[in-house]
Amino acid sequence: MRHPALLLLSAAAFVLALVAAPVASTAQPAPAPTMVPNAKPDFSSMMFLTGTWNCSQMLRGKTRADTSTTTVGMDGMWLVSQDTAPPFDQFRTWTVNGTSYMTYDATIKQWVQVGVDNGGGYGISTSPGWQGNTITWTTKGLDGSSGTDQITKDSDTKTTDASSATDAQGHTTTTTITCTKAAS
């Protein structure tokens, strides 16, 4: 006759062996995830803009200086420009710092530029791209304002902008901005 404790221990070992044994499954392994394409914009026509630029424009009868530095950022998806314009008259007594992001939106076949500044300004502009040595940006503000900025590439180190802004009341301001690339 077997000892009852040994019999109980044998039964427990048998149950443990059944639980621990692998169970054959008919389930298929999970498929590998499908990679989402992340096509980067073709910045070749815009790459001359990278670097630091010194710009000037006439505004309210005075020359307004501006420095802009552009790099490729956000994992190659955007051209990022950091802009600084020091105070220049009694109407604006603080330095304006702005950042703009430019990319190509293949779904609408337009270049898109999104900009913000430390004065609360913001805007979104679009352009179909370069026509020869000129690119025209169009802006429509949420407040009813609008604007255009026609940039002419005079060379890889000089641009000229003819800019026009119309506020929500219909008053239009035009200016010309000249930018020269700083030596690297």
The ordered string of helix (H) and strand (E) elements is HEEEEEEEEEEE
Shape: elongated
Number of domains: 1
Provide a count of the helices: 1
Calculate the mean pLDDT score and round it.
88
Give the CATH architecture.
Beta Barrel
Helical proportion, percent range:
under 10%
Unreliable spans are 5-9
Largest sheet: 10 strands, antiparallel, barrel
- Oligomerization status of the protein chains: single chain
CATH class assignment: Mainly Beta
Please list the strands of the largest sheet in the order they lie side by side.
1-2-3-4-5-6-8-9-10-11
Q: Which percent range describes the beta-strand content?
A: over 45%
Radius of gyration: 31 Å
Task: Outline the structure in words.
It is a single chain. With 184 residues, the protein is mainly β. A hairpin with a 4-residue loop joins strand 5 and strand 6 (122-127). It has one helix at 4-20; strands at residues 51-59, 62-73, 78-85, 96-105, 110-117, 122-127, 130-131, 134-140, 146-155, 158-166, 172-181. The chain has a single domain (47-181), classed as Calycin beta-barrel core domain (Lipocalin), CATH 2.40.128.20.
